Amino acid sequence: MFNLKEVKSTFESDTYNFSSRLKHYINSSIADVNGDIDNDIDAILYDAYETSLPEAQKVIHNALFMIYQINLCYPLSIPAQRQYDPIIINIKNKIEARWLYHEFKDTPNLEVPAKNKSFAEFLINLWKTHNASHHPLFDFIETDATQEQLYLFLKSDSALNLIFFDLVAYTLIGSHPETRGTISENIWDEVGHGDRYFTHVNLYKDLLERRGINLPTHHYVELYGAEALSGHNAFMLGGVNRRHYYKLLGVMAMTEVLDPPQYSKLVKGCTRLGLTERDFHYYAEHIEVDIKHGDDWLYNVINVIVSQHPESKNEFYLGCLLRLRTAERYYDQLLEAMKGIPDCQTILAPSTSI
């Protein structure tokens, strides 16, 4: 979802009447606000994090999701004019501060065991021991998922996959000179080494088209609950806030190490259901390239920065935790939704075109 002239919400209304008002304010040329929305967010944040109301959690992450869209919208659009609007910035800052406080308030202080030869090795162990690294969602896709259940996964995966180039590009802005080659190589892979067909965005669109899945302009964000929204927001948090830049690098590193073993199971599930190699080219390619990308982010980016700036370790640690935790919650929610689809045991016919 980029270069759109209006920001999109994942739902139309809520009991707070907040989401529709915020969406209208961002998209409207008339700076009118039905109610004091930048103060209304305080009550919603209280409900989200003090009383743990699911609707409130979705409302605040949807609000942040809409605000972050401003940074990728059409440059001459009305939302682009709202990028540094005081009301928008106030809402954004309040949500981010409360969200991160809640996320990390019980997190133990960073302690890197002496047995770890490097900080990268410590982060690898963090990944391997976290539930997100071996989530049952991908075992289910490999052995049990039906056509409809697989399609739900593909639709839900769309919104983040289709802006991933932009997310990687954010890591290059203001990067340390020693890391730019590694980051640029990652971006070069995202754009298919200059071949438009093999850009990862087009490979994913090709997968959807070949399976007859229509891709709407909003990229199926209506499927997003608070769990998926917070995972999406974890990337944008560090992209648009300089103070969270190191968190973004941690988020990116964990993404690259999470994907290969999980996508291996996904590809086996696709094969079981009759998809061809061309169908799942996007995922198969990530099995190979992301192994290298994961090592690159950990050893050639994070380790390099830590060697020069040891005080950055905690930010990388928090970014890695943020990605692992939001991924686990998203996988939990998606697996539950997939299992809620009637089990008709449909086997997909192979694609007729090559």
Automatic annotation (TrEMBL):
GO MF annotations, alphabetized: oxidoreductase activity
Superkingdom classification of source: Bacteria
Tell me which positions the record assigns to the signal sequence. none
What name goes with this protein? Answer: Spermidine/putrescine ABC transporter
Q: What is the lineage of its organism?
A: Bacteria, Pseudomonadati, Pseudomonadota, Gammaproteobacteria, Enterobacterales
Task: Report keywords, A-Z.
Answer: Oxidoreductase
InterPro entries, per the entry: Haem_Oase-like_multi-hlx (IPR016084), PqqC-like (IPR039068)
